[in-house]
UniProtKB/TrEMBL annotation:
GO terms for molecular function: transferase activity. Residues 55-146 form the Methyltransferase domain. This is Methyltransferase domain-containing protein. The keyword Transferase applies. Signal peptide: none annotated. Keywords: Transferase. Pfam families: Methyltransf_25. The lineage of its organism: Bacteria, Pseudomonadati, Thermodesulfobacteriota, Desulfobacteria, Desulfobacterales.
Length: 219
């Protein structure tokens, strides 16, 4: 599998979030808010019985908002370093229903009855092989009513794939057709794809898909 996880481990060692302009710092603290709950509620509900997996949880920004509304959150990321930062950040936010999971071991560590998989920004920074592996593998982890909400990018400056040997933040292009093919291959039902234009950059594609009942077809 073509993978740039090692590149992301090195980027985290270089304090990726602390040095990134998108994670605005106030009083020396990283961004602790966002529109993630609003995004999710545009597609499905967040309830106290739901088990949630976040692909690329980072230092815990999304989890801090989602965790109080659900039963439990499993956060996946590349190294003990960044997962340790997430645990500390979430402890300071009063979150105690979080389990950190290494990206190398998520298939073994994640339970088999996940109700919601959420991924924001991350797929545009991974090789296509890794993204395919996440969607295919997460489809098998979903509960009978499980759903996936995730964002892909198709930006003006995106490349066809990430180069694993480069220590950089890549921008990987996914077209609507490619997304549809991946969802079909994972045997998921595509509820909808919403395209959001980002002025001066290109498009984000928001994808909402769900578990198929046994014996049914994605078409």
């Amino acid at each position: 599998m073509k993978s740039n996880l090692e590149s992301w481990k090195k980027l985290q060692e270089q304090n990726y979030f602390e040095n990134h302009h998108c994670y605005e710092k106030k009083d020396g603290k990283l961004l602790s808010y966002g529109k993630d709950v609003k995004i999710i509620k545009g597609y499905t509900s967040l309830t106290l019985d739901k088990k949630v997996a976040i692909i690329g949880c980072g230092y815990g920004r999304e989890t801090a908002m989602i965790a109080p509304l659900v039963s439990h959150v499993w956060g996946i990321d590349v190294s003990p370093l960044i997962l340790g930062k997430a645990q500390n950040f979430l402890k300071n936010q009063g979150v105690n229903n979080f389990t950190p999971v290494l990206a190398d071991t998520w298939k073994e560590k994640l339970p088999e009855d996940i109700d919601l998989v959420y991924c924001y920004i991350v797929f545009q920074h991974l090789t296509k092989d890794l993204t395919r592996d996440y969607i295919m593998g997460m489809a098998e982890k979903l509960s009978s009513k499980g759903e996936i909400i995730c964002q892909f990018a198709e930006l003006d400056y995106s490349t066809e794939d990430a180069e694993p040997e480069k220590i950089e933040e890549p921008s990987v292009r996914w077209s609507v057709d490619e997304i549809q093919q991946l969802v079909d291959k994972a045997k998921l039902y595509l509820n909808r794809i919403d395209t959001e234009n980002i002025p001066g950059h290109g498009n984000w594609h928001w994808v909402h898909c769900r578990k198929l009942p046994p014996g049914s077809s994605p078409k």
